[in-house]
Amino acid sequence: MTEHSTLCELASLYVLDALDRSDAGVFERHLSEGCHICSAEVDGLRFAARSLAFAAAPAEPSPALRDRVLGSVRESAAAPAVAGRERLDFEEQGRWKPYSAPGIEYRLLHFDKADRNVVVLVRAQPGAQYPIHGHSAQEQMFMLRGDLTLDGTTYRAGDFIHSEKGSSHGVADTTIGCMFLMRGSIDDLVLSTGEAQAGQHASSI
Predict the structure, then answer these.
(1) Burial class (CB in 10 A: 0-12, 13-18, 19+), 45
(2) Which of 23, 31, 52, 104 falls between 20 and 30 A from 16, CA-CA?
(3) Helix H or strand E encompassing 34
(4) 84 or 161, which is more confident?
(5) By CB neighbour count within 10 A (0-12 exposed, 13-18 middle, 19+ buried), where does 186 fall?
(6) Which residues is 108 bridged to in the sheet?
(7) Where are the domains of the chain?
(8) Which residues are bridge partners to 81 per DSSP?
(9) DSSP label of 131
(10) What does the pLDDT read at residue 203?
(11) CA distances from residue 134 to 106, 138, 151 in whole angstroms, order as listed
(12) Where does the pLDDT of residue 148 fall: very low under 50, low under 70, confident under 90, or very high at 90 and above?
């Protein structure tokens, strides 16, 4: 991995103010040197974060609700981790698994056995390609960083991609590497050699 791609991976954590002072300083110096790719990624992530704040209708909380929320925050901060609750650390080691395509890894966040739906983080190295595939159910993807070119359109941080059941995509590729959050069916088809391989996701997970 190049030094530039390593720095690009800090963009999402920088926007979330999750970097320590040293790493934040390194990334800010990188931005000040005029990296247009990282600057655009930071702008996209900030726009997505600001948009989330307006997703719900405004409401004035009651004093009692405010006290309950603050009390709950204090308790959760002091409480041990609870089964089923996970802190999302993008770069946590030991939890990523190689996908069937070279240069691509995934991290399983949730698997609904009844609906056969999965929620996964996917990250790809620069130059990696995601094979031709179809959708046996709806699929949603939210770009967290980098670039992903799919069917002639390049998506970047903050972009949302929705695919309907029965649709399909050609080969997807990334120039600088990427990471995205994906929700889809474990029974999706992956056409890596021109032949349908049902359950490719299931076999790799």
Answers:
(1) buried
(2) 104
(3) none
(4) 161
(5) buried
(6) 120
(7) 3-53, 97-204
(8) none
(9) P
(10) 40
(11) 18, 10, 13
(12) very high
